[in-house]
Specification:
Elements lengths: L6 H12 L3 H11 L2 H18 L4 H8 L3 H13 L3 H11 L1
Helix pairs in contact: 3-4, 3-5
């Protein structure tokens, strides 16, 4: 995935990491992403949370509306990925 980290991605990371106001961040999300993309991305975080709680795929699909494929992808990333989901879940746990 290192070839994905282009200057454009670095610029996006720089902008995102500089925003501390949730309303400003949401406004950027509305401009950058479609409503569907925002919903699907948010859904993946919910799936990760439920997987981390040990919920079965069927219960996660029922609770979130996520497909088995999405749940499997999130599970793979949560268990073998770069640690992004773990960090996100740790942030939410502290909330």
């Amino acid at each position: 995935m290192s070839n994905l980290r282009t200057q454009e991605v670095e610029d996006l990371l720089e902008v995102l990491s500089s925003i501390s106001d949730k309303d400003v961040l949401y406004a950027l999300f509305e401009d950058l992403f479609t409503i569907r993309e925002i919903k699907e991305t948010s859904q993946r975080l919910s799936v990760a949370r439920l997987l981390d709680e040990g919920k079965p795929y069927t219960a996660i699909a029922e609770a979130t509306g996520a497909s088995a494929t999405t749940i499997a992808r999130v599970s793979k990333a949560l268990n073998y990925g770069s640690g992004g989901y773990r960090h996100a879940l740790d942030v939410l746990e502290k909330k």
